[in-house]
Amino acid sequence: MFAPRSILQTLAVTLTALSTLTSSAPTPEGSPTLEKRTCATQGPSIIDVLRASTGDNASPGQLFTLDREGSPPYDTINSAITFEYIPPGATGCMLQLEFPPLTTDNQIASGTATQADVWSTKPWNNTNLPTYNHPPVKDQFVSTTIFPTQKSTTGTKTILVSNSCSPQMSFFFELSNWQRGTGTVNFFNSLGGKQGLQPIGFSMIYNC
Fold it and tell me: I need a surface site. Which of 57, 179, 185, 206 has the fewest CB within 10 A?
């Protein structure tokens, strides 16, 4: 049995009115918008190369170097890096290691001992540069990383540390002492940005 035409007309009018109210309902004021955030990135303020051959001398700059040699092998060169002026209120600090596609073997590292231990350290800056004989004070062991020895067709990005942010964050790198072989790591750190220059090495990423 079909419903009377007058009832169907009434239902149609009611449904139309409800649809209009729903589609025109205002968005609550202050509702969040789904916008993709851009991470802030900054490079190391200083990379300090710590050489056993000049144990009391610092070597600040942007060159990163590690070396393990001798018989038995030991670490003859370590590196410390520090990031200064991380802005107040920054969140989600991540230490990233990035390499572009590598065109030749041994472009970044060579040998069989290319795994490095990564430590957070007490903060340091240009007024108290660490040396091989007076390295930065280790805080926590945070990760390991293996530096590439072979050429590649794709770049890589590795997050080594993820932590809360501080105005200054410092780290120490040494080739893992369990390695029986020798090895060398050597590259100039850069955020890129110039034509033809790709990012290579370390950066601090935050506010993602």
Answer: 57
> Which two tokens mark 107?
């472009």
Sequence length of the chain is: 208
d(CA 170, CA 50): 15
Taking the CA atoms of residue 116, residue 121, residue 126 and residue 129 in that order, the dihedral angle to the nearest 10 degrees is -70
Torsion of Cα atoms, 187 then 192 then 194 then 195, to 10°: 80
Q: Can you tell me the distance from the alpha carbon of 95 to that of 98, in angstroms, rounded to the nearest whole number?
A: 10
Question: For residue 107, what is the DSSP state?
Answer: S
171 burial via Cβ count (<10 Å: 0-12, 13-18, 19+): buried
pLDDT digits (tens, 9 = 90+) for 129-166: 999 999 999 999 999 999 999 999 999 999 999 999 99
User: pTM score, two decimals?
Assistant: 0.81
Q: 123-152 burial string, b = 16+ CB within 10 Å, else e? A: bbeeeebbbbeebbeeeeebbeeebbbeee
| 3-state class (DSSP) for residue 182 | coil
